[in-house]
Amino acid sequence: MLTVTQLARKYDVSRTTILYYEREGLLMPHTRSENGYRWYGQNEIKRLEAIMAYRAFGIPVSNIAPLLNREDDMEQERILRDQLMALEHEIQKLRHQQKAIVLLLKQPSLLEQSMVNKDRWTEIMKAAGFSEDDMKNWHQQFEKMEPEAHQEFLESLSIDKEEIDKIRVWSRQP
User: Fold this and answer.
1) What CA–CA distance (Å, rounded) separates 31 from 1?
2) Each residue of 118-151: b (16+ CB within 10 Å) or e?
3) What CATH number is attached to the domain comprising 54?
4) Which residues form the HTH merR-type domain (predicted)?
5) Is residue 66 part of a domain?
6) Which residues, at least 6 apart from 143, have a Cβ–Cβ distance to it below 8 Å?
């Protein structure tokens, strides 16, 4: 069992963050001691890890409860789709900013160089804690939910057509 302070140190977050998650109903202590200390056990630790993962994906705190509670599959899918679309919007916005900067630099050849390629994207996913299975699941969900957007995304990574076809085929397999 860990106190708020111990939990905060272990996961490199502030006590305030953990207390905020409690106020939002996301993370409740397992028990409270007579002196008012909050104690967190393994279930609460796993829940905090899930909360932190969803936050790392950019999901707002207000949308995390349905994902943690897994009560409504349609609501979960809506939240994840909305986040996927928000990320896509942000990527498009960043691409427009890149183009504007390149034009200001008067070096259009920079546009031909892909800023994020397959290897860089894989590094980013691994750094975010994704295993090979997690990445496959990510592709499977993307293919299932938005096949055309998945195709466009893979093309944006400068992956050749044959490899894109292979990725999309294994993305459709269970």
Assistant:
1) 10
2) beebeeeeeeeeeeeeeeeeebbbbbeebeeebb
3) 1.10.1660.10
4) 1-70
5) no
6) 150, 168, 171, 172
Whole-number Cα distances in Å, 171 to 109, 119, 126, 157, 159: 33, 18, 18, 17, 15
Contact assessment for residue 50 and residue 77, using Cβ atoms and an 8 Å cutoff: no
Residue 65 near residue 76, CB atoms below 8 Å: no
Say if CB 159 and CB 118 are below 8 A apart.
Answer: yes
Q: Is the dihedral of CA 151, 169, 77, 60 positive or negative?
A: negative
Quick: pLDDT tens for 100-118: 666 666 665 555 555 667 8
Q: Give the DSSP letter of residue 110.
A: H
Q: Same domain, yes or no, for 156 and 144? A: yes
The pair of three-digit structure tokens given for residue 62, joined into one six-digit string: 């207000």
Query: Whats the size of the chain, residue-wise?
Result: 174
Query: Residue 15's domain spans which residues?
Result: 4-59
Q: What is the pLDDT of residues 41-79, one digit of tens each?
A: 999 999 999 999 889 888 899 999 988 888 777 888 888
The Cα–Cα gap between 81 and 75 comes to: 10
